[in-house]
Amino acid sequence: MEKGLIAIGAAIAVFTGFMTGLGEATVAAHACDAIGKNPEAESKVRSTMILGIALSETCAIYGLLVAILLIFVY
Predict the structure, then answer these.
(1) More exposed terminus of the chain, fewer Cβ within 10 Å: N or C?
(2) CA-to-CA distance for 27 and 37, rounded, in angstroms?
(3) Per-residue pLDDT reduced to its tens digit, 5-22
(4) d(CA 4, CA 10)
(5) Looking at the domain 3-73, which fold is it?
(6) Which residues have a Cβ under 8 Å from the Cβ of 70 and sit 6 or more positions away?
(7) Would you call 70 exposed, middle or buried from its count of C-beta atoms within 10 A (0-12, 13-18, 19+)?
(8) Is the pLDDT score of 2 beyond 90?
(9) What average pLDDT does the segment 30-56 reach?
(10) pTM of the model
(11) Phi, psi (5° rounding) for residue 6?
């Protein structure tokens, strides 16, 4: 394959990390909003937020893994 196409593919794969960061920031903002409206549910909101952020972070890690594989294997 051409190096340029591999670089474009790696850039797109790394872009998943950027979008994951935006998603995690949105989740954290909405969780803070929910805790502000209902302080009694803080532990449930926090645990659900952490679970959601951890699951979305795996998408960023997979994107980084694909980018590294594209750059160094091909």
Answers:
(1) N
(2) 15
(3) 989 989 998 888 888 989
(4) 10
(5) F1FO ATP Synthase (1.20.20)
(6) 6, 9, 10, 13
(7) buried
(8) no
(9) 94
(10) 0.75
(11) -65, -40
